Amino acid sequence: MNKRQLLVIGNGMVGQRFLEELVELEHDFEVTVFCEESRPAYDRVQLSAWFSGATADDLALGSVEFFEQHGISFLCSEAVVAIDRGARVVTGSNGTQYSYDALVLATGSYPFVPPIEGSDREACHVYRTIDDLVAIKASADTSRRGVVVGGGLLGLEAAKALKDLGLETHVIEFAPRLMAMQLDASGGEMLRSKISALGVTVHTGKATQRIEDGSSHRHRLVFAEGELETDLVLFSAGIRPRDQLARECGLEIGERGGVVVDNQCRTSDPAIFAIGEVALWQNRIYGLVAPGYDMARKLAAQLCGDLTAAFTGADMSTKLKLLGVEVGSIGMAQGGAPEYRVCSIEDAGSGVYKKLVLSEDGKRLVGAVLVGDTSDYDALLQYVLNALELPESPISLIAPASGEKPMLGVDALPASAQICSCNNVSKGEICSAISAGCTTIGALKKETRASSTCGGCATLVKQVLDAELKSQGIEINNDLCEHFAYTRQGLYHLVRVHGIRSFAELLSQHGHGKGCDICKPAVASILASCWNDYVLDPRHVGLQDTNDNFLANLQKDGSYSVVPRVPGGEITPTKLLVLAQVAQKYDLYTKITGGQRIDLFGARVDQLPAIWRDLVDAGFESGHAYGKSLRTVKSCVGSSWCRYGVQDSVSMAIYVEERYRGLRSPHKLKMAVSGCTRECAEAQSKDVGIIATEQGWNLYVCGNGGMRPRHAELFASDLDDQTLIRYIDRLLMFYIQTADRLQRTSVWRDNMEGGLAYLQDVIINDVLGIADELESQMQSVIDTYVCEWKRTIEDPVALKRFRPFLNDDQPDEQIVYVRERGQKRPARADEKSPADVLETV
Amino acid sequence: MQNSTQWVEIGALDDLIPGTGAAVRVEGKQIAVFRTDDGLFALDNRDPFSDANVLSRGLTGDIAGRLVVASPVYKQHFCLKTGECLEDDQQKVQSYPVVERDGRVFVAAVGEA
Ligand code: SRM
Ligand SMILES: Cc1cc2nc3c(=O)[nH]c(=O)nc-3n(C[C@H](O)[C@H](O)[C@H](O)COP(=O)(O)OP(=O)(O)OC[C@H]3O[C@@H](n4cnc5c(N)ncnc54)[C@H](O)[C@@H]3O)c2cc1C
Ligand code: SF4
Ligand code: FES
Fold first, then answer.
1. Is ipTM > 0.95 here?
2. Surface of B (51-80) touching A: CB under 8 A
3. Compositional bias (Basic and acidic residues) spans (chain A) (predicted)?
């Protein structure tokens, strides 16, 4: 028996997702796909990433292997030009005919170009495909100014691209405000002022009438009132469904375009279906990918016999970052019906605008607008989607972070609550996957697809996982890894109490298996904190994490960076000169870091010893930029020079940096010392922050920059030098003893039962009676400090590992550099073709 | 197949610190050789996720019973025996035969698929 023929027209995001859903099910179709573009489906949502270096491969969703593996015929660069419904035959652009039993239209949409005279001039573009981007980039190379016509979501994204390409950027919007579809008037205004502040000029209420030759730029745009010259024009004035084929073969089409479909995604011909941006469902076109994915899933299920599968509409809420400004729009953002009640806050200072649209009785949320800060988005969306009852005073949900915000616990969500909107995964589905054994985020992602597209729901998914594990009585496993049934703290005590000096010893007495890249570095760090042995000792070298392994930071191309210590950021001109000479001698990319020192990049592993020999000879030491250990102690210039300084912050910073250099800890440690309350060293964002007072020093602890910033807390005031140092000794050693692997002091402190008061009790009041022990353990680490690089360049055994190859001294020929702004940088893959290589090291 | 294998001597066993890897060049190929308690293993030195030649600098160990090396760049695990990637079954590196004779180590640059 012949298999039934299924033809899919279009291999865009939705067409591809349809195929992926289909092959997951038992189906008996012979599938053929027409792909008009010159490459299989790619991620259009992330299209702009192409400008920041993502390649077409990075964006790829479909692949030739996928089609081969599933026996799908993939016709690349072949469009369908006609459908004969009577004969059930389509004609491809090269004339071949294909018959079908079922036909899926997934032709998406095209960018609408307003009928303006001159819109087809050179350097006038749209923003939809990778080919469009290639063309835009080429035009940008010969342009100084670019104009985006259209101030909607895509227009602003396009504006960002033009800005990143270095053009003076303007946005022209016909409507009186930006993002008219999603935002209300105040939100649009706030967005406009934020975007203007970023250097993009916004013109609203302007209708372009024609484009003609410019005098100082390539084109002149002529408006009803006024004109603007530009070299490049990008149209982003909305999208139109690609319904041409459907029109020509007589399928029912909506008044304003789009192929009419029912809940089964079926068109007016029962053998033809439409999904994605070409489909018109209940008179709506969804210009987002998530509803298209939902259609794809439902249609695949239906074609495989699940007659209950139906598309029943989708939520159009969105959260995004436009030109660095966070914007969110949920549900009935515009308010609309007069019976809705509205409350909002607006802070022009910080550029934050938030609005809630409430139901008539004020009990439910029906919509929201967020500009400048979308941290409340997830919670608000859940209130809308699940019609949850609002707290007493709804405004508290969007109040500034200082106020007490009622927390929306994931427990409050019903099983039907949608957690991942990209992939339509409900809380219930996540919970059943957890019951079925998916107890890690990775496993959940694989099983349910939750959080695998935009990632916006990751926090929520994790919360559901944790809550569910807890409620199902599944113990949250705190074992370090499969080789040790202990926490890091447990292992620390075993090492300390039993005087264990090597991984092999610890593994044979308290673990099983051979170890892995989790436990080996963790144990190496514990051994170093306790005994401070040389980390490249043959007993320890195989345990060290990547960077410790070669005492340098690994870069994306396999080369390393070199960071000498510059205590407190103070450096003599002579030493500065040495850094310059070393950088020149080895041709290293040189950059001033955020930690007040200098990073030299692009050293091959075989060059590291020679570079460090030069540096050590000039009096430099390892900066431990590679270690989970003390990084830098930042300082301000302090009382020696500054007219406000009340203490010598530089001397204190150097003292502290030299005291704790080389101290291995659960995660990296950063400190800073400021000479007065103006706090120029930003000590309140550090693990240990010291701020001078008239009487001495204020000590702040457990601050963090990075991914989850946390202000440090005032721990003790007006300390003299000795007390200050004593407290820091104790605090750091207590952290080293009790923290989890890779836990910064901020998270350690947040998880500490009893909070700051308990920590003060242990460190200041010594309620555990361990203060002396902590101090003496710290003293022994300080007493045994040696510069690892000084030691390494004198150790022939350790040096052996820095050879490029065991059997060959020719360096890796695939490390290739190009020049940019007078320095080298790693060549990107597309630059590695021989013609472009300016230099091979 | 076995007969045509070209073994290339790459150095002494003692040059490899137990529990670590080292890069070698065999017939123009960059190969990572690992010395573990379970013997010697050889894989491509190129990490397919970063395109950098660094696998020899990864940490070795075992995950759910399989001997692995973790890429030092983005930390995916590769089976030391087969070169398969544990996190992504679309990715694989080549593994190569490696033996020790009288304290010397030999690698053959023929792929063991
Ligand atoms: C070089 C530098 C950026 C720069 O060009 O200025 C840098 C570069 C790196 N940082 Fe950083 N960070 C640098 C200052 C910072 C700062 C600012 C500071 O220290 O004042 C922060 C925020 C402050 C903080 O940590 O609290 C910072 C927060 C991070 C984080 C996030 C940590 C967190 O707790 O959220 C990571 C990732 C991690 O550690 O897991 C990171 C990781 C990295 C790594 C190691 C990423 C990696 O694994 O390859 C980068 C490699 C360094 C290299 O190859 O030499 N870097 N990084 C800065 C080096 C400072 C120095 O002299 O040592
Ligand atoms: C720059 C940009 C940013 C975006 N950002 C977001 C976002 O943040 N969030 C979001 O949800 N959505 C976003 N979108 C929208 C999202 O990309 C679309 O919703 C999604 O791609 C629609 O998928 P589709 O398969 O229906 O259409 P498409 O992805 O356009 O695919 C249709 C394909 O069919 C092909 N085709 C058309 N006619 C034929 C024919 N006759 N024969 C053969 N092939 C044909 C086309 O060439 C095309 O490849 C963005 C879009 C763009 C352009
Ligand atoms: S922020 Fe830090 S970690 Fe991220 S790319 Fe820059 S240097 Fe690397
Ligand atoms: S919401 Fe985008 S991945 Fe879940």
1. no
2. 51-54, 57-64, 67-68, 70, 72-73, 75, 77
3. 820-834
